[in-house]
Amino acid sequence: MHPYDFKEDVKTVTGNETEYYNFIDENYLKVCANARVLEVGPHVGKHTKLIAKHAPCYLECIEGNIVHQSTLEDIPGVDKVVVDDVWLMRDAKPFDVVICFGVLYHHHSSLHLLELFVNYNTPKYIMLDCVTAEHPLAYLPEDINISGSRQLRKSWKHCGVNFKTPFFIINQSLSNMGYDLKISHKLQTSYFPKSNGWVALWELRENL
Asked: Domain limits at 59?
């Protein structure tokens, strides 16, 4: 355990793929009930189906890969699918909940992405997951401007790396923008995409 990441007293979630989704459904997604929800990076819609079960009053998905558009549109309860890059999202919309799973570790600036969520939407809840950072400056190369990548417009260029921002920096950044950590867990499941990371939910401070 590294001092700049999770504290030892944060609970760890284990189990297989089914157990992981059951845990997320039971412990995190209840805030979606009767809410306006924006899901960023739904991929093939596994979380999307769980969100829809909680009967949000509106559910919009932003997915950069057009291959998944029809799959997402066929999920009952999905109101709109936007095939675009989330960095190009600029329209202010009154979302109550923003959910961003499997996305932060693909971008060169997780904090700037969070600023987009807050400044253009100011949701009541922000729900995120990410891989556990083994170093505060950990980074990886990222594919850019190719078919299937998240950078779809020729006018938008990616720097070609992604930084794995440690949890404590994300938490402090959201706190500075007016959000308090409500719940968080470490992920050590046998389900590969969620085998070494964390999931957390923040709530907008009432006096803002």
From this structure: 12-152+181-204
pLDDT, tens digit (0-9, with 9 covering 90-100), for 157-192: 667 777 788 898 899 999 999 999 999 999 999 999
- Non-local (6+) Cβ contacts of 73 within 8 A are 81
Nearest 10 degrees: Cα torsion 159, 121, 149, 17: 120
Whole-prediction pTM: 0.89
24 within some domain? yes
Pairing of strands 197-204, 179-187: antiparallel
d(CA 95, CA 171): 20
- How remote is the C-alpha of 99 from its chain's centroid? 5
Angle at 52 between CA 109 and CA 202, to 5 degrees: 40
Distance CA 136, CA 50 (A): 32
